[in-house]
Structures are given as C-alpha cells and as structure tokens.
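Supplementary notes for students who missed Thursday's class. We covered one full example, reproduced here. Read the sequence, then the structure, then the short commentary at the end.
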Amino acid sequence: MQFSEEFLYHIWDAQHLKNILTTKSGKKLVVKFTGRWNTDSGADFKDAIIELSGKILKGDIEIDLTTYNWKSHSHYENPEFNNVLLHVVYDDNGKYPFTISEDGHKIEILEIKRQLDKDINKLIKHYSGEPYSEKDKTCKLFNKMNSEETKQLLIKLGMMRFEKKIIRFNAEHFFSDFDQLLYMGLMEALGYSKNKYQMLQIALNNHFKELKQFYNKNMTNDQLVAILLCSSGLINHLPSTISNDYKKKWQKLYQNQKFVNQSSDIKWKLFRIRPVNHPAIRILQVADLLYDSLETSFFYNILKLFSFPTDNFSLNNFKKKLYSLFQTDNNYLSDFYKLGKTRIDTILINIILPLAVIYAREKKYKQLEDVVISIYQNYPGLPPNYLTQYMEKFLSEEQKKVIRRRAIYQQGLLKIYYGNCQHHYCEDCEKNNYIFQK
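Structure (token representation):
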C-alpha cells in the first residue's frame, strides 16, 4: 500500500485502530491520549498517555512508515527522541521487538498494519492524498459555557496564573535582587521554547552586578556584546545575516578585554530557527538596553514605564513607552531585526508585571500595584502561539473571539492547559473548573 507518513498521523490522531492493541513484544496497549502534534523538531506527538500492560505511561510518540526509518532518519543519534515511549509503524521490517533510543533504552514498537479499524478503507480514500491537520477536539467543560461564563472563568484562572508567577519570582527574589531577576527573566524569554535554559545560563554566568562592575571599569558596549556572545559559545554559531567582519571584531575584543576569561559549554538548539529568532540576534536586540542600564539600575529603568500623572493613566501611552524602550536603534541590526512588539508584550505579561507587583507589595505602593493589575487585566490579546492554537480547538467560534480580546483570557486558557489538558485530566478539569466558575 502506497501512502505518505502524514497519512499515518491521521490514523494515529483519529485512532482508527482497534480498542486493544498489541506491541511487537506482546504487551497489551490502550491509548488514553494520542498526544499533541509536534510541528517542531523531535517526535511527531508530544505528551501522549498510554496504558501498557496495565501501567500508565506518559511521553512522546514517533510515527514512521517502517521500523527502519528510525535508523535512516538518524533518530537513534538524536537526544530529542529519548522521551519516546512508543514507536508506531505501519510495517515492522526490523529484526527485534524494540527500537533503541540514543540513550540506550528500549522503545515498544506498535505495528498497525494488521490492527486498523474497519473504517480504514474509507479513511484511505479521504486522507491519503491530503496534508495532515489535527482532528477537531471536543471539551465537556467549554461545551457547557456561553461566552460570558467563559470570560468569567478565564479571568479568575488568569489571575491565579499571574499570582503563581509572582510566587515563583518572589521565591527567586530571596537569592537575587530585582535587577538580576529582570535580567534572568528577560534572557530566558528571549530563548523562546528551544533555548530558554541556554539563554538563562548567560544571565547566570554573567551576573548583572558583575556587568555593573565591568561598566565602572570602563567596559564598552561593544565589549559587552563580545562577552555575551563569546563566553556563551554563540560566536561560533552566528547566523548568516551577521557579517564575518563583526564576528572577527567581537572575537578580537573578547581576547583583549580583561573582564571575563571563561567560556561556557552551552548546547544551543539552532535547528530550523529563523534568523530573527536566533539567540545571537536576540542578544544584539537587548544589548544596548542592558548596557544603558548598567549606569543606574535595570529594574528602575523599567519601573519608569509606570510613571504617569495620578488618575491619568493611558494604556496606549504605556505601550508606546514600552516599545520605545526595547526597540532602540542598533549599530549591528537593521530595523527589520528589532525586537518585535509581540515578544515585548510577552515579556511584559510574564516578567515585568509580576516583578512590578512584588516590588509594589514590598514597598507598600498600593497605587503602583493597582496600576500593574489593571494593565494585566486589560492588556490586549497576544497573537496565538502553538499552545493557544491547540486549545482553541476546544472552543466555539464565539469563545475564540473572547479569548483573543485580552491577554488575561489567554493566560487563563494556558492555566487550564498546564493544569489539566497537558496531563489529560478531563474529568477533574470539568468538575473543578466548572464548580469554580459557578
């Protein structure tokens, strides 16, 4: 039978398989949750839940036409596939009942050629030549709600998610001052999903207080860029959009400066990264802001955003000040590569606002706290990411319109995802959240 690998995604996602399956090793398999389709590098479906010989397991699913594709696609050399718990293949053409991962553990193989359901012929005619897209989902929680009920629930959950961020930052505040907290949060946010930890390592290896000391010893802006790029190893992975002359300049500056002499072994994930999302570009985007803040305080420079005449706060004016602070002119980047407004909005919601509340509560500045909370509750919705797009599959068209209006609604939706959907706790979600909303 001739068809593409994407056709197998349809079969798996819609579960056009028998109710009780058998792996090549002879174990009984029940699929509890097929997982979330992965459009990035790594396994095809993430966070799946299966029952294998009575044991509940959670992990990734890799889908191939044949067992040998695991080797031909070099998955056995890729650590990103070490969380795979089931290798689904149409035709098992291997010699052994297991697939072996990069770290050496055995992965169960499910051959589906003889375990398809009776509707498969109809499915073949309908899908075998079409590109894959996830099947429509249903959700008992949202099916019971109108738009207003959805809004009220998500406001409450959005505030709960916001308070959890405050608690997390407050715990870190025990070890770090506000400058370092903001610096770490900013760098982590600039790493996106692939390089969050890696970018955070830069902030941990080059503390803000140390950078201030270097500044007081006449460190230049160019030297700061050289330190961040060279000490992290990014200098060896620059995108093609950065000229080789700049690379040589930074390497020479780093060799000649007397502030930092260590290099970190950071493993960067740069597969299929757009140039504008490259961590080296992200560092260049904020280097001027960081350098300008070394003279005084990074955090207090951000706090100035909230400085408005009493009873005359304007969200639009606040946004203009926010964007102008982050989108400064840059000697190395064109305007096209300036930090985008969407990323700045995300940094505001996830980092700046929680830190501002912690500061306001610590200093007992009630008016500042009220302004910050008001911004959070009224800030316009952010463009959808892969998680909010996934969650929208559960919503009606009217509910989708609600979600897109304000960031707090999206945050509430993410609270449901991370608390329930990610683990497929549908019954608990329906019971607890619906009672809470009522």
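Commentary. The chain has a mean pLDDT of 89. DSSP finds 19 helices and eight strands in the chain. If anything here is unclear, bring it to office hours.
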